[in-house]
Amino acid sequence: MSRPRPLSGFPEYTPEQRIIEQYVLDRLRETFELHGFASIETRAVEPLDRLAKQGEIDKEVYVVQRLHAAEDAKAELGLHFDLTVPFARYVLENAHQLQFPFRRYQIQKVWRGERPQEGRFREFTQADIDIVDNTTLAAHHDVELPLVTLQALERLHTDLGLPPVLMRVNNRRLAQGFYAGLGITDTAAVLRQVDKLDKIGPDKVIELLIEQGLSDAQAQACVGLADISTADASFVDQVRALGVTDPELDEGLALLAAVVETAHRHVPGRLVADLKIARGLDYYTGTVYETELVGFEKWGSVSSGGRYDSLASDGKTTYPGVGLSIGVTRLLAPLFSRGLLTASRPVPTVVLIAVDNEESRDDAIAVAERLRSRGIATEVAPKADKYGKQIRYADRRRIPYVWFGVPPHSEVKDIRTGEQLPVDPGRWEPEGVDLKPTVRGPA
Amino acid sequence: MSRPRPLSGFPEYTPEQRIIEQYVLDRLRETFELHGFASIETRAVEPLDRLAKQGEIDKEVYVVQRLHAAEDAKAELGLHFDLTVPFARYVLENAHQLQFPFRRYQIQKVWRGERPQEGRFREFTQADIDIVDNTTLAAHHDVELPLVTLQALERLHTDLGLPPVLMRVNNRRLAQGFYAGLGITDTAAVLRQVDKLDKIGPDKVIELLIEQGLSDAQAQACVGLADISTADASFVDQVRALGVTDPELDEGLALLAAVVETAHRHVPGRLVADLKIARGLDYYTGTVYETELVGFEKWGSVSSGGRYDSLASDGKTTYPGVGLSIGVTRLLAPLFSRGLLTASRPVPTVVLIAVDNEESRDDAIAVAERLRSRGIATEVAPKADKYGKQIRYADRRRIPYVWFGVPPHSEVKDIRTGEQLPVDPGRWEPEGVDLKPTVRGPA
Predict the structure, then answer these.
(1) Residue A303: strand pairing partners
(2) Does residue B227 sit in the same domain as residue B359?
(3) Is B170 left (phi over 0), alpha (psi -120 to 50) or beta?
(4) For the Aminoacyl-transfer RNA synthetases class-II family profile domain, which residue ranges apply (chains A, B) (predicted)?
(5) How many CA within 13 A on the CB side of residue A424?
(6) B397 touches chain A (CB under 8 A)
(7) What is the distance in angstroms between the Cα of B2 and the nearest Cα belonging to chain A?
(8) What angle do helix axes A140-160 and A15-34 make, rounded to 10 degrees?
(9) Domain assignment present for A57
């Protein structure tokens, strides 16, 4: 058996990196719960026909089948590629026992059979929040979700030193209404071209739109709309100046203005209206969100989502929803690969209990138990080596303290300073900052 | 689209059940970290040839393949069926950057294509601890692991009211040495029959052993050994009384006696030596553990494991390990299905901020933000309904408090008692017991 090699696209972390990931996940969970989101988890698999409904993405699904399934058995299950489709199914399945509007967060792995490359993974962790209601969902939730997400990301910026973010928001109804006002019917076809704006530039997009049958004026107006981006509600006047009128356009403008204005009051500088944002997934019907790390825009969106008015429907009742997803792996993996995030130590242990000889191991265990009962993470040395070797065991793991002897003759050494003092296992406390591993980011 | 139905063997929880599961997982994590175990996660998939090595289980593996893989593409990946095999692979892959002995915990889902039935799932959560070392692993870790596991399970007993547990421990070297002393060479064949003792009784097992070529005396001795179970080290004398001698038997007896004696001092009454315990998986080579819930023995083992001396080897170096796994789903699902575990509420929210009218929603958000900044989970009411309706919104979710008005004219009502008092958003605190959802078990 030779040394196994990593599987491309399936990132795995060192214990130190995992401490950082847990730090991030704990803070996301705390922020979500402070906003009243309840946790759920869904199974890893969904029926293939439910996954395949999301047209664009079916080619990237992983099929799951028993190794010894009958030769002619048809594959029926696939690994979920996001948390929105499983959540919509969960809502339908459990509607009778949920209270609406239902607010949930969900932190799980998802899988996509994509070609792996930097920022693209085959297995990755997402942290989603969604609110769904029965029949209709109030517009203010489209405002609420980016506030929660931005607060979560802001905390990673201030506490961990991750780069600040900028969320770009648009509304599909705004674009749809605008296009309708221009006399364009195939909204999706236009959006597909406009989505290429950043890659190929406005002239090329106009060319493509004209090829598609738009007049020069229509194509110019579409690109003009996509070009608008403001940090306040002034985008409304800029759109009006393009001279298009339509009732759906009015609704879209009002909805987007409410998002931008509220965000401007509560999280200034972190959210802009950007009328070229489209989002790929078919199920979005209104507000759409994308978020980039400032200074690392080329890594792509680290938090995306939108409103989906008809994803969850059982034929009788529809459950409209709005959701935002934080790409935890996408956020962390590039920072890990550049060594920009570090933890103070790769283990939870604060103190190592030295062992004098194997006969007294039980006394060392008893000391350890007393410390653990007061919340101090403690290991007993694995071998009754010379003290110097036991200290090196701690040092290699960056465990800050080593404990010698049994009460009433116990002493603790801070192996960073060399200071050693007599202590009592019922009372000794490490420095507060040493109690848990701390993490540090690039800032 | 009709209402979707659950997939048999893939349990999903309600938000209230998920709160209970998170409570359990948080406490397991805390106990593991207090003992110096570092967290890792491994990817969900392993190469099929690595999974298939564990003879018995390969028929239950789920294969994973891209939906649009080439027709003749050979499946190469499968979902992991436990956390030990992936961990052994992780150790080999990362040995150059790990410190040995390496202590890790791992809480993840695993998948098995088994026929679903009560207590058997196709997707379930395990919480594992393992210690591996380079070349040799000290015997005291076989003693340490059950102490940590029993402490974790004891905490669920005292804090949550789960039933107490009894861990049964054996050592394969003890049985091997005993059989060798009897002149039996095919240990595995004997173990397979002895494993049926509880199901078919001693007479039938003796019959099967004789059919396999053992003498009547040999068969009697094997069943005699399997019949021994003691809560202290007295099993050693009982084995000696069977009159078999062998150096490996001596080693096995000493190792098992050390486990039982130390457990007897630190967690009295929770661990016994039971010489019929075999464990199915081929990779165990020494101590083996099984754990049942007292009074619910028929649910099977909720925590199992053992020592594996040669699972992780790259041809040059071997990394022996010892591990124990807690079956979190197996522990919780039967209690959920009987309604024996409840949470005080199905949401994290402590207080609902009532909204007077949509124009003042922003003031309500500002109050909520002040409370959240002090760690109080707060929701803003989704609709500016009459107060009675907003109180019903809270009541249906068992949210204990509703907040009315904006400072300086704020009041909080405890909707359980009806008591309503003027409060300040910078200072109000809920009752301590209300801050987080609490959980309650059957006891």
Answers:
(1) A326
(2) no
(3) beta
(4) 20-346
(5) 2
(6) yes
(7) 5
(8) 140
(9) no
Q: At residue B268, what is the residue type? A: P
How far does B116 lie from chain A, in Å, by closest CA? 13
Measured CA to CA in angstroms, residue A290 lies from A158, A262, A306, B44, B397 at distances of 21, 17, 9, 28, 32
- Work out the average pLDDT over B232-252: 96
Torsions phi, psi for B65 (to 5 deg)? -150, 145
Say whether both B238 and B166 belong to one domain.
yes
Q: Are residues A223 and A305 in the same domain?
A: yes
* CATH code (residue A184): 3.30.930.10
Domain boundary among A298, A324, A342: A342
- Asked if A143 and A33 sit in the same domain, the reply is yes
Report d(CA A93, CA A87) in Å as an integer: 10
Q: Are residues A372 and A318 in the same domain?
A: no
Q: Which among A93, A419, A117, A216 has a CA at the least distance from the CA of B12?
A: A93
A231 phi, psi to nearest 5 deg = -85, -5
pLDDT tier, B87 (very low <50, low <70, confident <90, very high otherwise): very high
Q: Tokens for B285?
A: 């080579």
**CATH number of the domain enclosing A375:** 3.40.50.800
**Subunit contact B113:A347, Cβ cutoff 8 A:** no
Decide if A430 touches B, using CB distance below 8 A. Answer: no
Q: How far apart are CA B97 and CA A47, in angstroms?
A: 40
CB contact under 8 A, B378 and A123: no
> Average pLDDT, whole number, for chain A?
93
What does the buried/exposed string (b/e) look like for A70-83 if buried means 16 or more CB atoms within 10 Å of the residue's CB?
A: eeeeeeebbbbbbb
Same-domain pairing of A115 and A172: yes
pLDDT tens-digit map of B370-410: 999 999 999 999 999 999 999 999 999 999 999 999 989 99
Residue B52 covered by a domain: no
Contact B13 A40 (CB under 8 A): yes
pLDDT bin (cut points 50, 70, 90) of residue B3 is confident
Residues B324 and B366 occupy one common structural domain: no
Partner residue facing B15 (CB), from A10, A38, A133:
A38
Which pLDDT band, with edges at 50, 70 and 90, does A351 fall under?
A: very high
pLDDT in tens, B173-204: 999 999 999 999 888 888 888 888 888 999 99
Does some domain include residue B58?
no
Q: How many A/B residue pairs have CB atoms within 8 Å?
A: 233
What's the number of domains chain B is made of?
2
A180-194 average pLDDT score = 89
Measure CA A209 to chain center.
35
Which range of residues forms the domain containing residue A90? 15-40+82-342
Both A260 and A383 in one domain: the answer is no
CB atoms within 10 A of CB B427: 8
Tens digit of pLDDT for each residue in A36-72? 999 999 999 999 988 876 555 556 899 999 887 766 6
How would DSSP label each residue in A6-56?
PPTT-----HHHHHHHHHHHHHHHHHHHHTTPEE----SEEEHHHHHTSGG
Whether A195 maps to a domain, the answer reads: yes
If you average pLDDT over every residue of chain B, what do you get? 93
Give the pLDDT score at B310. Answer: 87
- DSSP character string of A249-300: HHHHHHHHHHHHHHHHHHSTTSEEEETT---S-TT--SEEEEEEETT-GGG-
CB-closest option in A34, A93, A123 to B44: A123
What's the average model confidence in pLDDT over A167-180? 95
User: What letter would DSSP give residue A99?
Assistant: -
| Partner residue opposite A315 with nearest CB, options B1, B35, B379 | B1
Domain boundary (B300, B315, B342) is at B342
Nearest to A22 among B39, B67, B98 (CB): B39
Q: Do B38 and A62 touch (CB under 8 A)?
A: no
